[in-house]
Every structure is written in structure tokens, then in C-alpha cells.
């Protein structure tokens, strides 16, 4: 009988064994609340969605004129590995030689594996840098606006608030937690690199048992755990800044703001107050003004302001709020509101961006570094904000603004993608489909036949994390895991490292890329980074073979000392912030100097772009949030993900009043639509969704009803067929995929079957 072997994933540490054709998974015994996402893993070993052999799109392979127009609808031809690798090497040599490195876009999103070595993003960037570089992307779809605005206001992203407010401090000291966008437990199921203990539920329950109160500001009631009995303020989507301004106005009107803190620790408050009180534009941002925009009662706004001023209050702002029009504003305004309360730097109080968005945020920091694969230096200066890929492919040479810089989109001839599915993350999928018809060649490493694979010219089957050895480790998680191979590679799948090594060999770069190390050599080499730091700190420091045999080691943590926020509060001169003023920038002269009309020098209210005449015929707000049944679109074919679907389609939640007005029954198939596209889904009638709002999670694999049509309908339920593809503002150009406007109707007739997990039509070259 096979014994269980240790392994890890973004959603939890576990062990597994493969026996009698079945993969059995056990959660780590020390995890108090293991994620149900582990239930998706067994399908990896046998799903027909897996890519089993290298394949090349027929039109591209045959050299058909104008063949790029067939991407997404063409057949595929299976080829041998030597032939596939020769084709890739030949095409890379051609594009680098004829157009230079600035004509190649290296795409990846980093979530394909929790391993420190077999990390597709690191592998592809290292490979392309060895060849001469590539056009890169910056920031993330999850936090694109925050990653740009926070450095201007607080200092480096992930430095100030994420390293200052811990779950332990909340459990000990927080009296009131006001969560704009909520803290859905499903989001804390995952963390990049792994999570060995899911502690958020028990920590929040501990704070409640001590007497802490919770306020949820969200159109969805279950954006906070039900057992916390949070006060629910069912806000109109996209109006949180108006509510924050109304609270701020109430603080000033009743003299509840902390002027001493504002004077000592911030700059520019006077300019902001002129705006808040209407001295700058004639419009007071009063609770009455805010109530008319956000749908929250005037008394509720005033009472919340008073409660926040008279308690140890923590303000949190979720990723979701900044994944919308003008997404920089709620992040910034949350900081201003916390500064007005004067509690930044106090234990359990102040401000925390994205607390609850990932499982390890809020835990103590590690005291030793983690293994990291070097990527070399990219000599190409060109880059795009990650959410602007369709703009780049559709508009080469066009100008765009980003964070104070006037830039131009490069002319991309070849896209090389490994570790990610842009047809999950990106918005307006019909527009993205058109964009993916522009490059001359698209090469993809994939584990399964996602839409990204189906829009590629050369598809190279990559192993999943279960099919190789690796080291699992993540920031703020104290357990390093020996990720031991659990199953043999499915079909002819190969590790990304092996694939890139063989292409590098064909291009004369093998030794430079591999440094003559095998995968096992690399694991031992990278482990030494952590081992030597352990030894230097006087901790137990086993060698690699001992670690591998044990299966895990525990890493030391730094003390919970309040982090940079506490240090700044205690000594603002000796521990200044890394901002131009060294203080919290309520007014940023830098941002004001950019001259952007959609992001000025202090936070302000901008009505969402959807509030236009073009969208008046789409009266419902659609919230496109993260799924609870998978990580992004990963393993959508897994058993747990599929068990949450209704009649094979994604569920969409709708308020009873909105359903009744349209004759929609619970469980019925419905069609959501707007000017950008349409999709089918299965209705779930729920009081947990505000009237006028629907919720459809992202991540269902995109399946067009007609792959040849320009304006296809997704029959599976991917909401990104409906979302708009515009940047948050000229400052950050972040994703706005969280919210859109739609109408919904009953689907009449027989709904087309969902077959996306069956794989496309593939032929062997000999056929």
C-alpha cells in the first residue's frame, strides 16, 4: 500500500496518495479549518480536460493566410515533443531576430503552483530574460489600483498596513471593525505559496467573544461570517467613497475628528476638508448627501461615525472596492477616514487594506527568507499595467497614461504565456478574443484545455503541481513543506523547467538557463537560502535531505510589535513613512501634479462610469466576485467546483423582488446581457443580495455558443463576457472587473449543453 506523501497548494497543506487509479487527499492535521477546495485535486489525475500531448493549431501549422482569425475556433493537431520544441525555437529565433525583444510579451500570473521552484511566472521570465528580454506587465488584477495609490499615500505597497495589523491584535484589542467590502471567509481559504492553518474564522469569533462589534458595508450579506452577527449596511455597489465622505463629514460636524493626529502625522488635510465641507466646490459631502447616493440611511451614517470615534476602530478596505471605476478612491479615502479617527498605529485599530483577502495577511511575518528562483535582468524597458493587455494588442503605438508617465503600447508579434489564464482574469471577453487574433504567434504552456489554450497556436502540456517535486512556502506562513510528487505526469506532460531547458538548448542558451542543474539540484540549492538563515539565527537548520525526509519544517516568526504603523506613531521623525513628506498624504502634490481629471490630489467622489445613458437599459448591478469553489478558474473541472453548479452552469444570485419582477424561478436558467455580451447561468433566489443587485462569481471556464461569432454568448456562466475593459483611472489603469450593469431574463427553450471540460477536437498529424 502506498503511503501518504506531503504536498501543498495555494489553498492548504495536505498529504496524498495514488492507489488503484484514485487520488486520495488528506488535509494537514494541524489545520483547524481546511479548505473544501482540496476536493478539486483528485480530478487532476484523470480529467478529459487535461492536455496530454503537444498540439498545434491547424491553420498556423499549415501556414494558412489570415489564420489568426481562426483562433478560438480552429482544430488542433498533435505533434511530437521534438517537433513542437523545434517549432517554438524557430519562431522565437525569427521574432527576436526580425523585431527584437520588445515584440515579445511574456505573460504569466503566478498562481499555477505553490512551489518555489516550479513557479511558472519565475520560469518564463527567467527563460525570456536569457533570450534577451520581453515586454512585461506590472501589478495585479486583484489589486492594481491599490498597488499604485498606496505608495503615494503610505509608502511601499505591502509595507505599512499589511505589516502592522495582525489577527492576534484584533482578537486582543479591536472593539469595532468596519469592513468596507467585507471579509468573506472564502477569500481567506487561499494564499500565494500556500497556507498551513486557516485561522481567520476562529480569530474573528475570539474577538466577538471578547465583545468586538462588526459592521459590514457590502451589497452581499455573506461577505462576513454569519456567526459574527455583523450590522449589515447593504450599500449600492460602487458608492463606498460617498459613504466614507458622509462619515467624515459627520466626524467634523460633531468635532469627533482627531486634529492633533492630523496635524502631526498627515499633510494636506486642510485641502481635503475644504472639499468635504463644500468650500471648494459648493457641495457639502454631508450624511444627507451621501445617503442619496449610497442607499444607506442618514441616521445609520451618523451613528456609525459616532461609534467609530468612541471605540478602538479598525477600518478595512477589500480588494473588491478598488476593482471598479476610480478604484484608487476607496483605498485612499479609507486611509483618510482612519487618520481622522487618529487610531493608526494603535493595537487593533487604524487601517488595513485587503485584510481577509488572502489567508496569511494578518499573520506574523517570517524571520527568515524563503527560497526564490533568480530571473536575471530584463533589458527591455517596455511594460503595461497587467489589465491593459487587450488595449496593447489592439492598439500598438497608441499613447496611454500611467502613474505620471506618458507611454506607448508596444507592437507585439509573439505572446508567450505560462502559468495563468487571461480568459479568467480579463474583462470584456469578446474584446479579448478580438485582441488575441492580432499577434502572429501565441505559445502557451497549460495543464488543461482552458480558453487560453484554445486561443493559442502552439500548446505545450505542462505538469500540475501533483506531478513533480517542489518546496512549498509562503510569506507569513511558518510551515515549509516538501511537496512530493503524488502521481505520474498525465499523458506526455512535462515540467515547465524541462520545456524551457530544451528550447534553450535549441537556442544555445541551455547552460545559461539551467546553470547545469537538474530540478532536484535546484531544490537543494534554493533550500540553502532558508537553511543558512536559520543557522545564522541560531535556529534548527536541517540539511535538504533531512528536510525532504521529514516532509516539513517550522520557520521562526518575528514578534508582533505593531509594525511600521506603530513605529511611525511612536516616532514620526525617526521612523518616517516612505512618502515625499514622510507622513500620510491626505493631499498628494505629486498626484495633483499629474493633472489627471480622474484622480486628483485628494480622494473624492466620482460617479461610476456605468451611470450613463448607454447603460440605463441595464438596471441591475452585477457583482463579479471571487468564487468559493475554486481559486480563480483553477480546477473548475474538479469535483467540488462542479458540485456547486446547477444543471452544469454557474449559479447567479438574485434578490426575490428582482426575480419576481422578471418571472424568474429558483434554479431556472437565465440569460444575463448588456451591450458587451451575454451569458447563461442558473438562478438562485436569495435575500442575502441587495435589491437591484445580482452576484455571479468569476472563474467558470469560458465557453462561447459560437466560437466563430464576434459577439458570442458564454453558455457556462463566465461574467467577464459582461464586464467592461477600462482602467480604474489614468493613475493606475487597474482592472474594473468587479462591477458591471446588466439585465436578466428567463432563458426560453432548451439550453445548449456545457461541454467545455471535454477538450477540443484534436487530431494526430498522421491522420
UniProtKB/TrEMBL annotation:
GO terms for biological process: anaerobic respiration. Pfam families: Molybdopterin, Molybdopterin_N, Molydop_binding. Residues 620-735 form the Molybdopterin dinucleotide-binding domain. The keyword Transmembrane helix does not apply. Residues 7-46 form the Molybdopterin oxidoreductase N-terminal domain. The keyword Protease does not apply. InterPro entries: Asp_de-COase-like_dom_sf, CT_DMSOR/BSOR/TMAOR, Molybdopterin_N, MoPterin_dinucl-bd_dom, Mopterin_OxRdtase, Mopterin_OxRdtase_prok_CS, Prok_Mopterin_Oxidored. Its cofactor is Mo-bis(molybdopterin guanine dinucleotide). GO terms for cellular component: outer membrane-bounded periplasmic space. Residues 50-505 form the Molybdopterin oxidoreductase domain. Keywords: Metal-binding, Molybdenum, Oxidoreductase, Periplasm. GO terms for molecular function: electron transfer activity; molybdenum ion binding; molybdopterin cofactor binding; oxidoreductase activity. Belongs to the prokaryotic molybdopterin-containing oxidoreductase family. This is Biotin/methionine sulfoxide reductase. It comes from Rhizobium lusitanum.
